[in-house]
Amino acid sequence: MTGRLIDIFEEANGKFLRSDNELLKSKVSERTLCGALMIHLNDCIRNSEFAGYKVDVEYNRNKNGKVKTHIKTINGPNDVVVKINCDLIVHSRGNNIIQDNLIAIEMKKSNRKQEEKDNDRLRLVALTKDSYDDIWSFDGKTLPEHVCRYALGIYYEVNYQNRVILLEYYKKGNKFDMKNINF
């Protein structure tokens, strides 16, 4: 599944880079870039075997009126609560118990603080784990209490100065590939 999701993402990203290159040239905000990428990703998802999934920008899933959080450990034994408000996601909005979450994308400009970039990477590690606490076992009937199990995480860093996009791919809590794309 991961390979197919990468293919779909890269097709959408290619369309984004070809048709919306003026956004990159004008150095617009990450939010604007995500919105434009969302349109292309939505088209590619809609024309794939994942047609029932939705593409959302900065989605914050609520349950019983409460914003969903994801608890993870950062720097040793201290639990840190990380708000899950990913830049761009592909998911079933809770309608597919077997695989609710497909793709989580975090986008950053290269001139942002390293701490912000690292936090996005840590979020992708956490989101792509099979369980937020390494305990939840998938029963095929209920979603986990905390957001997890994204099949693919993508860190997307735009370097305007060098006209390069860094892509890092994550699955099961680990970075497994990276590449640079010129624009």
Structure description:
With 183 residues, the protein is an alpha+beta fold. The protein has one domain: Alpha-Beta Complex (tt1808, chain A). The protein has 4 helices and 10 strands. The strands form 3 sheets. Strands 1-6-7-8-9-10 form a 6-stranded mixed beta sheet, with helices on both faces. A two-stranded antiparallel ribbon has the order 2-3. Strand 4 and strand 5 form a beta hairpin. The longest helix is centred in the N-terminal third of the chain and has 18 residues.
Topology at a glance:
Elements: H1 2-19, H2 21-25, H3 30-46, E1 54-57, E2 62-63, E3 66-67, E4 69-73, E5 79-83, E6 88-91, E7 101-109, H4 114-128, E8 152-159, E9 164-171, E10 174-182
Helix pairs in contact: 1-3
Concise description?
By secondary structure, the chain is an alpha+beta fold. The protein has helices at 2-19, 21-25, 30-46, 114-128, and strands at residues 54-57, 62-63, 66-67, 69-73, 79-83, 88-91, 101-109, 152-159, 164-171, 174-182. 30% of the residues lie in helices and 31% in strands.
